[in-house]
């Protein structure tokens, strides 16, 4: 097969590309330039897609003996990821930019271009597994639970997954680093990227404030209705937030307060005790089913596992489709679940690992 290897400059994508070469595929490496001003992305080990990362990716491609290119996706990234991120916060929702990047950039824009150029698949360093059963594609958790990235891939369509390769799905991170060292890849010990790549200093509130300006509102006790303070905009908060609320007076019981809900129209931020964060019901819209079958083809309610964050936020659940929306009843309440997040649904299969049933965007909780 002709394979386009997306090479971020990290150890995972380098080893994934190496395995694709070793498997006998015709591999071409590509690094995505996601900013017109690379200095606005994180530098060093804290981010991804920087100039340094492009150099690391090129060196890995040279070692593997494969052609290498840098493709400019900066405009598309700004529109699909950065502007979406800002708009979601302005609407009082909490987006996941990494999920959106995978969905809109790596497996839409990149994959579309790859197929147009005659490639059969895009290879990435994601930790997830793909299999085909009776002609149907299946997305499953990786063998390394601590690195599993199926949550941020659960919004991919059947067709996108048919053109995807995840060579690291059966490996652990420790094994991948050891393999990189054995292959002589200079990124073997390079730290993992983290945080949001397009916010250079990590100050999300300032980043949003610079773009959205000030929209004053009130901080309100959700239980009593008492006004506790003022703020410069709901975009500076997210459900579950504890620090930086700007409330001077402690709660009557001395317990810390958390953000419980955001009301962008009125500018109200509702806060309260931690136990009021717990929700056991989620309603989500715009579902995507990796296998092409809603809820794995089941009729009626389905016993499953729901996950609301990339790492953590997991509960046994019952899910069903109601008028096109996914209604999830959690067996164990979860805290800090916010509109805008994705809920991924899994079916537990002890023999083959957790199977991704689908993903949808959370609209309300209760």
Describe the fold and architecture.
Among the domains are: 2-125 and 167-183, HUPs (Rossmann fold, 3-Layer(aba) Sandwich), CATH 3.40.50; 204-276, SH3 type barrels, CATH 2.30.30.280. The chain is built from eight helices and 17 strands. It has helices spanning 11-22, 51-64, 74-90, 97-116, 150-153, 158-162, 173-183, 204-212, and strands at residues 2-6, 26-33, 68-72, 121-123, 128-133, 136-141, 164-165, 217-221, 227-231, 258-263, 268-272, 279-288, 302-307, 314-322, 325-334, 342-347, 355-365. The strands form four sheets. Strands 12-15-14-13-16-17 form a six-stranded antiparallel β-barrel. It has a five-stranded parallel beta sheet with strand order 3-2-1-4-7, sandwiched between helices. Strands 9-8-11-10 form a four-stranded mixed beta sheet, with no helix packed on it. It is globular and about 65 Å long. The model has no long low-confidence stretch (mean pLDDT 90). It holds the Pfam family tRNA_Me_trans. It is an enzyme of class 2 (transferase). Residues 147-149 are annotated as: Interaction with tRNA.
């Amino acid at each position: 097969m002709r394979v386009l290897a997306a090479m971020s400059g990290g150890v995972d994508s380098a080893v994934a590309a190496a395995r694709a070469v070793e498997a006998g595929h015709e591999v071409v490496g590509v690094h995505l330039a996601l900013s017109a001003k690379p200095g606005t992305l994180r530098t060093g080990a804290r981010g991804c897609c920087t100039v340094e990362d492009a150099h690391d990716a090129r060196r890995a491609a040279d070692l593997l003996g494969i052609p290498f290119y840098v493709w400019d996706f900066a405009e598309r990234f700004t529109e699909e990821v950065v502007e979406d991120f800002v708009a979601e916060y302005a609407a009082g929702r909490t987006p996941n930019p990494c999920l959106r990047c995978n969905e809109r950039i790596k497996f839409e824009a990149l994959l579309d271009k790859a197929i147009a150029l005659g490639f059969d698949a895009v290879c990435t360093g994601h930790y997830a597994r793909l299999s085909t059963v009776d002609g149907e594609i299946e997305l499953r958790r990786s063998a390394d639970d601590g690195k599993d990235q199926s949550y941020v891939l659960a919004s991919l369509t059947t067709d996108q997954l048919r053109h995807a390769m995840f060579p690291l799905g059966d490996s652990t991170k420790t094994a991948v680093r050891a393999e990189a060292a054995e292959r002589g890849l200079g990124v073997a010990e390079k730290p993992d990227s983290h945080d949001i790549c397009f916010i250079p200093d990590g100050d999300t509130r300032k980043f949003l404030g610079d773009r959205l300006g000030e929209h004053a509102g009130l901080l309100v006790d959700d239980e009593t209705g008492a006004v506790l303070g003022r703020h410069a905009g709901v975009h500076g908060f997210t459900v579950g937030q504890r620090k930086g609320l700007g409330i001077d007076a402690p709660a009557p019981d001395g317990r810390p307060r958390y953000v419980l809900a955001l009301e962008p129209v009125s500018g109200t931020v509702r806060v309260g005790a931690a136990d009021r964060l717990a929700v056991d019901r989620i309603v989500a819209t715009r579902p995507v089913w990796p296998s092409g079958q809603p809820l794995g083809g089941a009729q009626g309610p389905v016993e499953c596992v729901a996950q609301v964050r990339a790492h953590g936020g997991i509960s046994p659940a019952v899910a069903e489709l109601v008028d096109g929306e996914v209604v999830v009843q959690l067996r164990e309440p979860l805290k800090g679940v916010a509109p805008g997040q994705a809920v991924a649904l899994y079916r537990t299969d002890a023999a083959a690992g957790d199977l991704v049933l689908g993903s949808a965007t959370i609209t309300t909780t209760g």
